[in-house]
Fold:
Amino acid sequence: MTAKRRLVIIGLLVLVSAAAVAAVVRTRRDAPQLQARVQGVVEAADSSSFARATGPQPLNFPADYGPHPDYQTEWWYYTGNLAGEDGRHFGYQFTLFRRAVEPPAERHLRQSDWGADQIYMGHFALTDVAGERYEAFERFARGAAGLAGAQAEPYGVWLEDWQVEETAPGVTRLRAAAGDVSIDLNLTDTKGPVLQGDRGYSQKGPDPGNASYYYSLTRLATDGTISVGQTAFPVTGLSWKDHEYSTSALAPDQVGWDWFAIQLDDGSELKAFQIRKADGSIDPFSAASFVDADGTITRLGRDDFQIEVNDTWRSPHSGGEYPARWTVTVPSLDLTLEIEPWLADQELNVSYAYWEGAVKVTGTRAGQAVSGNGYVEMTGYAGSMQGQF
Structure:
C-alpha cells in the first residue's frame, strides 16, 4: 500500500489534459514547477465505471503477473538492498504504474496508433550510501505506439527503455537509467507469490470496493550492475516485488500511511502497513504478514503488531517531518526489530512528495539475534492525502 494511486491520478491526468505524447523525466528539483502545473486538474473518469475489488477471487499465475486494464489503477513495484564487492551499500526503487483513463464500457478501437486508454508512469530512485547520494526520477508515456505497456506471458512491463522483462521462468531483468545513474539487475524468485490480506484481497477501508488485489514476491535473489557516474559496480543482494490493482479511494478521514517491507537474515520477511487517520489514530484496516523461511505465512491484524516512532527528520525540500527510526514488535512471534534509514534524505519530490527509502534492521526473534534490510514508504507527512484518493 503506497502513494502510487495519488501519484498516478495527478501525474497521468496532466498528460491526458495536455495531450502529451512524449515521456517526461523529472527530478526533485522540478517538483515546484510540476506542483504548479497540476493545480486545478480535475479527475476525468468516474471511478464507479471501473471494476472494483469487492471480495476474494482466485489469483492465477502467470496470468495475474500481467495487466488488469478494467481496474483503474495498477502498479508493479520493486525495491532492493544490494552491496558491491567491497561492501558498498545501495538501495533502489523501480516502479511502473498503469492508469486507465477510460472505463471499459467507453473504450473503442482507435484508428491512430497513438490513441490510448491507458497511461503509464515510472519512478526510479537510487540510494548510494557511501556516496551520501539519493537520486529520484519520474517518467510518463501513453500505452500506445509501443511507448509503454504490460503483458503476462512472457511477463513484461515497460515505459520506453525502463523495462521489467522475464528472461526465464522465475527470473526477471530490471533496467532503468536516468541522469548519471542506472540499474541492470537479474531477480530470481525463491519463494513464489505471497497473497496479501484475505487470499490476495487487501481491504483498506470500510466502504465496498475500498480494497485492492495484492500479492508480493518477498525474497528475490538479485545480482547485476549499478552504475553511478562513470563507475559500474557489480552487486548482489535481495529485492522485493509488490503488485496491486484496484479502483478505490482512501476514506475521508485517512490522511496517509506507513509501509514496511523487511527481509531478515534468518530467511524470513515481514510486511506491515498502518493507515493514519486525521485524528492521529491508526485505522483498524492496517495489517501485516510474516513469511517464515519455509514459506509459512502468518497474517496479522491491527492489534497484532506495534510500530513505535523513536526519532524524526524534517525534509529541507518539502518541509515535511517524517518518522526516522522505529521499533516494530510482534508479540505472538516474539519478534522485536529496530529499524533506521541508511540515509535520512530519501524523499521523492515528484508528482507528490513522499519518503521511500532503504533501511537497516537489527533485533531479536525468539531470543535469537536477527538483522537485515528493507524499505519503508511514508505518505501524508508533506501534505495530507485526505480526500485525494
Remarks:
- The longest strand covers residues 211-228.
